[in-house]
Specification:
three-stranded antiparallel β-sheet; alpha+beta; Creatine Amidinohydrolase, Chain A, domain 1; five-stranded mixed β-sheet; 17 helices; Creatine Amidinohydrolase
Length: about 525
């Protein structure tokens, strides 16, 4: 749409607000277009619509993820027979004014469709109830993916729409191509409102109940809420609670990873290990830079973009005392030769599965005596957690084993203000001053995966074949912590590995990255010389 430059020139007047154009005022909603200076003549429009090579209509091969996604939909279908399930991907999110963040769909949407990368913002998966066993793959629902297809090249949107026009964002697959890729029925986004609201209402009088994955797309939230109110379901607190059960079920569905997911996580770990190698190679430049942590962050990010889709989460590149800040993501500090560098980072693959690994490295290539003492305590705690991770044990047992070792070391060092037994008792917990976070979390599409799962399936859940989780104890002695000797202050150490539970026991997916202090020093020496030799 053109901007209003001169009211005497009709072809440049915005049709959104003729009165404003006549008065010489430009409507506020069109002012972002001032920078484009796009012509609006009929000749330009006709020329833009002509002389383009035919677009390919070849159908892609079925995605390797498709059968697994279908199985996941079948599992969810079994949980909610007779109900319409609405799972949005989510819209683009504004970063600044008219620029958006790189798009990433909601993890539950990606899990049920197999669609990763930055495809199909505003898409919605609708699972329509069918007769028992008459839906997709013998399930209780038929699934349809609703999304906005790119406008044809004969449309002004092709070159005029910065969010959806091919000239701006590049080509995307057609509905037919997406359907072939995912093994899903597809439909245009403009049909979504009817699909969501048709026959919705009170089940006891013949209506179809809707369950919505909420707080993903505000427009879909509003659509469903309006439909509910219009059909007599005006107890929004009750319907929100019912929607919460869907969110819970979708989260719990991811507690056990299928073979395809495990393959993606292995790839994410391998790419992350490469990123750690890249960081060590860049440490001499980090030492020489006033914001050396940014050098570290940038080195890992480059590898994440080269080998994967993006970072799985903001990198923690924390040197010196910054390593005692659990989620230090400013990464604005220097990296000094005598410091430890705590690097907590993960590569997200194009499938959107991410690794999550932490190593604490001596910047000069060698741990000091006190650094090594604390490091060994954390490593022993990690090993104790690994030993406790056995099929049939509770998830929380991993944490208990790890923090018990840390408490014992803190007692040996004379840092606990009470006895070891009192510290470990529920009424004590003094050792947690220096290790306040949990030891483990599930890992997958989200770095903290399955977060909406019930406590009895998460913390109190039984470790089972196919679970993937972290083991990440740490000790953090802040610079201003007067409860510890001066030599401990400013030291933060965490060791984190990604663990696959199998029927034979745990497998450390990240074992290729050294963790024993001697091995870490030898590994670093093989990559760079901190003295420049």
């Amino acid at each position: 749409m053109s901007t209003v430059q001169n009211p005497s020139e009709p072809e440049s007047v915005s049709t959104l607000d003729l009165a404003a154009a006549i008065s010489g005022e430009q409507p506020l909603e069109t002012r972002n277009e001032n920078r484009s200076q796009r012509p609006d003549s009929d000749a330009f429009k006709a020329f833009m619509a002509s002389d383009w090579a035919p677009e390919t209509t070849d159908l892609p091969a079925r995605s390797a993820a498709a059968p697994y996604a279908a199985s996941r939909r079948h599992s969810i279908s079994a949980r909610f027979p007779g109900e319409r399930l609405v799972i949005p991907a989510g819209p683009l999110k504004v970063r600044s004014n008219d620029t958006d963040y790189r798009y990433r769909p909601h993890s539950a949407f990606a899990h049920l469709t197999g669609l990763g990368l930055d495809q199909e913002p505003e898409a919605v998966l609708v699972m329509e109830p069918a007769g028992a066993g008459t839906g997709d793959d013998g399930g209780n629902h038929t699934a349809t993916l609703y999304f906005r297809e790119l406008a044809g090249r004969d449309s002004a949107e092709f070159y005029a729409n910065a969010r959806h026009g091919e000239f701006w964002i590049g080509p995307r697959l057609s509905r037919a191509q997406v359907g072939a890729l995912l093994g899903l029925a597809t439909a245009p986004l403009e049909d979504l409102e009817t699909a969501v609201t048709a026959d919705a209402g009170v089940p006891s009088i013949g209506g179809i109940n809707i369950r919505l994955l909420r707080e993903v797309d505000q427009n879909i939230d509003a659509l469903v809420d309006t439909s509910r109110i219009n059909t007599g379901l005006d107890d929004l607190e009750a319907t929100d609670a019912a929607d919460g059960v869907l969110a819970e079920a979708l989260s719990e569905l991811r507690l056990i990873k299928d073979p395809w997911e495990i393959e993606q996580l292995r790839a994410a770990v391998a790419a992350t290990v490469d990123g750690f190698h890249e960081v060590v190679a860049q440490l001499p430049r980090a030492i020489s830079h006033p914001r050396g942590e940014r050098v570290v962050e940038g080195a890992f990010f480059t590898r994440a973009r080269e080998e994967g889709n993006d970072l799985g989460y903001d990198t923690i590149a924390a040197a010196g005392n910054n390593a005692t800040v659990l989620h230090w993501i400013r990464n604005s500090g220097p990296v000094h030769a005598g410091d430890l560098l705590l690097l907590d980072a993960g590569v997200e693959m194009e499938s959107l599965y991410t690794a999550d690994i932490t190593r604490t490295l001596p910047v000069n290539g060698t741990y000091s005596d006190v650094q090594r003492r604390i490091y060994q305590a954390v490593l022993d705690a990690a090993d104790a957690g690994f030993a406790a991770a056995r099929p049939g044990r509770k998830f929380r047992d991993v944490h208990l084993a790890a923090v018990t070792v840390l408490a014992e070391r803190l007692a040996e060092w004379g840092l606990l203000p009470v006895s070891l037994d009192e510290a470990l008792s529920p009424r004590g917990q003094h050792h947690r001053r220096w290790m306040p976070h949990g030891t483990s979390h599930h890992l997958g599409l989200d770095v903290h995966d399955c977060a909406q799962a019930k406590r009895e399936l998460y913390l109190d859940g039984i470790l089972a074949d196919g679970m993937v989780f972290t083991i990440e104890p740490g000790l953090y002695f802040k610079q201003d912590d007067l409860a510890v000797p001066a030599e401990y202050r400013g030291i933060g150490i965490r060791i984190e590995d990604d663990i696959l539970m199998t029927s034979d026991g745990p497998v450390n997916l990240s074992s290729a990255l050294p963790r024993d202090p001697d091995d870490v020093e030898a590994w670093m020496a093989g990559i760079y010389s901190p003295t420049g030799e």
